[in-house]
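User: Structure please.
Assistant: Input sequence and predicted structure:
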Amino acid sequence: MLTRDEQRAIARQLTLAMVAFGLLALGLLWRWLAPEQEGVSQLLLGLASLLVAIPVFRSGWYSLLHPTLHGITDQLIALAMLGAWATGDLLTAALLPIIMIFGHVLEERSVIGSQEAIDALGRLTRSQARKIEADGSVLEIDNDQLRPGDRVEVRAGDRVPADGLVLAGQASLDTAPITGESLPLEIRPGMTVFGGSINLDGLLRIEVTRIGEESTLGKVIALMQQAEGSKPPITRLLERHAGQYLLLVLLIAASTWFVTNNAQAVLAVLVAACPCALVLSAPATAIAGLAVAARHGILIRSSAFLEELADLTSLIIDKTGTLTHGALRLQDIRAQEGEQPEQIRRLAASLGATSNHPVSRALAALIPQENYYPLTDIAERQGLGVSAATEQGEAVLGRPELFARQGIVTPPVPEHDGPIVGLALAGRFLAWLLLADTVRREAAEALSELRQLGLGRQMLLTGDRRSVAQSIAGAVGIGEVISQALPEDKLTRVTAEIRSGFRPMVVGDGINDSLALKAGVVGVAMGAGGADIALASADVVLIGSDLRRLGTCVRLSRRCRRTLHINVLIGLGWTVLIVAAAAFGLLGVAGAMIAAVLHNLSTLLVLGNAGRLLRFDEPLGQVEGRDPRRK
């Protein structure tokens, strides 16, 4: 997680600290064994303090040129060393920076532990791929050599090398590293898969669609790195007042000297006032929260939005591709008396596979390709449907007008908000097939969770027809519906919601949602099938597109906020307590060293409390009830 230069810098600091600690121990031993040779002991302690002074004064000088919150600690330790030298306390001058160096290394290691989720995701992008050559042979290559359009073979146990479209085969995929979904995903031809998923069984042939930084996993890592580098609001607040804080500490130290005339108490004040715990309270919490979110398939663009999620009061959600799957699916079969639904599905799928129309593609996915009926004399009638010859006679699939032209008698067309096609065989009408964009089976549960979390005001904002929008809203429990909305209408509605005093979460996936996503307090994009512009406009991306992760976002955000408040309380309260104890001389004759130990203890408490967030886990179980996608 560290660059080579950073590794060398830490190694140098540790080496100097260890050598200095050895000289210090030798000096104390010499003082104990030969108390009459005080000069030798002082020489050894002086050499120890000079060794550790190099990194301390270098850091202090750098912090003067480039002011930061961490720089205040460097400046205060440098001042404490100068004070110890001025009073002839070489033991304190040597031991104080040694304690602080070891403390800083522990802090760095703890923060790196929270960042390892990013590195773990990065490792998922590096794998082998079995590329299928033009002659049908299979060649093993690194997945970074793949290009869009390449075809790969993924065997049981293999990791999917890149985002792609399944051309053939069936398998169960473990998508937990990408989406946080605990249950395996059943994959069939025509479905999209994420690079980094693991094939648990079966054999898949996949056409690569996105690679590298353009892949889903690549975008996950890029957003995680961007979010990890962002500064939480409380950190920016502390940075604005860093100069005043340093001045306040110097005034307290001067007052302590004026009242007590105790150099050790002044040194203890300078050390105790180092704000490491307070400085680390926000970034340590944010890094842990972002890492946990990524593990659950949630990308949060900035730690600021991690805090915003805790205070949302309303929900504005799109329909197509958000509450619904965004693709046509068979909703019902109105078969004639005596006709078998399974035979109807098989014939409809066989005819649907002969056309690229969206309705035909939806029907073609009803059964596996190997179960299609053999067809000949296929004819596609533009805008009406398709016909083909079978062993039982001519089969016809299409709109009601096609059957009228063919002279086939049909029953009345049923009422339905969505596409309707008929199916006939050998001049006999078999059934009406009703298709629609079906509601995600977890949608009602997800929205109910959000209402329990305080997002009681919920609105469906869609460009679709009123009747369709009302039907979907009723199915998921949304009371307010605004339909036939253009992108600018959606933007206007979101801004009006904010002006009314609400703090809306806006959820969408399409190009027409991008303005609204940007305008909301928090914009959430559905990552699996969302448009690139929507993903770019959103503050949060749900990689797996499971709406139950909206509740996870809010709960994680509130847990992070509680953790942050506790960390700030620890950092601020502990610092004030130690400074007060130091100023009143309560830390004793070794006040500076005791203050350094207590200071590092508070820092480790903050990091440990932030680390508790890493245990946050909400696996997604099976949604109760019948899957609306299966008929």
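Residues 246 and 288 are 29 Å apart (CA to CA).
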